[in-house]
Write a structure and sequence with these properties.
By secondary structure, the protein is an alpha+beta fold. It contains 14 helices and 20 strands. The chain is about 50% helix and about 20% strand.
Amino acid sequence: LALKAGDYRAAIDLVPMDRPVVTECEGLVSYPAYLKLPDFTSGPMVRSLDFPLGSKVLLRGSADRSITMMTAATPDRSHPAEIDGNSFVINFGQLQEEELAQLHFVDRFGLKPKLRHAIRLNAREDEPPQVDFREVPPESSILLLETITLRISSNDDFGLSSTKLRMKAIRGGDVIIDTTLYDQPEANSSVLQSGFTFPFDPRFFTLQDGDVAEFTALASDRMPDREPVQSRTVRFFIVGPEKHAEIIRDRMEAIMSRTSEIAREQESLLMETIELQEEVEASEESIDSKTERKLSKLADMQRANSRDLKANAEEGMEVLEEAARNPLFDQDALKDFGETLEKMESVASNQMSPASSKMQEAQSSPPSAASESLAEAEQLEREALEQLQEILSDSSDQLDRLEALTLAQRLRKVEKTENLLSRNVLTLLPKSIGERAEQLAESIFSEKERIEAVQLETHLEAIEVKKEISRFHERTGKPAYGEVSELMEEEKAEDGLFEVSRKIDRNVGFEALDELELWEANFKKWADMLEEANSEESGSGQGQGQGEGKDITEQIMALLRIRDSQGDIIQKTKVVNSGNFLAQREKWTETLADQQQELMLDLTDVQIELAEESLNPLFDDAHTAMYGSAAGLENGDSGDETVSAQTESKEIVTDLINILLESAGSQQQSGQGQSMTGMQLLMQQMGQQPGQSQAAGMTPGESGQGSTQGGTTDKAPGDLTGNNLDLEGDRRNSKRTGGASQSPPPEFKKVMENYFRSIEE
């Protein structure tokens, strides 16, 4: 720019310049000390910064040229910056609320930015953690011999401190267990999500039929003085195998009772079809409207009857799957019931439904064609009725077999109850001998009252089971049941058990102890008699068709249960070995050793039943691995060596299953064997189609693992054992392995809810 003023001459340089801008701005957060978190640094151009209340916040950055002045303005105050050339640092100190900071600055040329640089500082409350059980309903039932895996997950916004699992067990109105089972601390303060799995097996806590187990999970963050957050309560109703077997048998009887009603309805429909056929034959040129309406109604009724039978069969399959969980049920009996259900499905699809279609055809046909359609419908209905009558006849024998097994187990349960009560009385004697009942200490008196109440319940159960044994003998004529009924009458079992309860009430301990041992021996003898009779009857029905195409379904199912049970043992062993496990390790390892030895015996049973020499090396390897596991557990070793032996045995059992399934699949494809219903049921339960040799259900599942983070605990809760009925006992039946771990179907849950509601009332 040239300037002229008279003789004055000058030149001024004008340089166009952009307004200054912030080129970098990062946030630095120093968290409150209780969080034990390292300082956080944001990205190079932060616009929003999140942090917990009480954090110290710095902004550090630079502009595109030197700065002479800068402040960060918030609604309440202004924060000056420390300037060094084009760099700046702004210290906001500890922030206790959310603020919007705007940067005001001037560069060395006196220029200001066109737009202010704004940063939102989000100071947030440190929220409590969250914790819950995954994929577990609020209430469900569990068999006494089952294992259900609890999956606990927790999370927090700034860092978890620990996650715990607590258990409470209730018997009647008394809390018998209230303890922390598992405590997983987080050594790393930055863990935001965590969790673990815990295998719940009622036997480890000596629970019994009718008990209730409640679980709650707790999560803690690092906020001082904050109480742990508690999850929802998950409640399990414990069902003994005997009670479960009774419920299943009742449901099976209800299904067959409805089938009987369907058969009566089918007979009525057949008679109406015959009458309508006569009316149609009497028609000359066309069917009148009244007859058409009758045909339409009859077709609808036949269609409804078909739907009812199909729904009945579907419900039966659900009951059958539920029964497969219970090791008390004989697999042959379940297989036979499965074949009966398959026949019901076949009748509904192949006779009843086509009969309805023929009736519909008759509505729109001339009399001659309509008469032919009705004749075909009549034939289909006759076939349906005949097959339904055959199904009802077969099912009567099947239900008798199931009832026979149930009655023997109910006697066995009384035997074990008497054994338990004799041990309870023996424990009580040193503290109560010589005292009058009303002079006993409160705790001793309460225990005496509990033992008396159990004995009274046993007395009532004995009355009921004797009546059912007598009725069963009258209906079936089986001599063993008549003999047991007569022996119970001769021994006056009802009066004898009641008299024991009176002696317990009067604190006559020695006499009560003698009589308890006597009744234990009696009920053992009677249960043995029934089981021996059942075994002989079952054995007489076997041995047929055992040649070239013998059915190995039962052995495959037994191996599947062994494999699942071995997986449960692996999971439990890993939990015991965790430093987070707080229950008594010695008790758990002893119980696990017993379960491992039981699996070894079950595996031997399968090996003997198969009698396949080519498979013996695999069976021997599996036995060796299981023996290594049992030996380790007996010595209290739950470490890697024991788990390795368990894993090896599970893999070998899986190999055996694969080989047998391939053999069974090829046998079915080649048409060998008269009936593959058992194999089809097995495939259905595994999620596998018949004929496939591999399936997702066959591969070893991933066992849940408890976390091994954290240290050891130097404080264990008190004894988790309680006075309980040992449903395992010293006596063992072959081909009975613990049930699979799966959720009960909705129908079973309804039955269980009614059952426990009646207990509470």
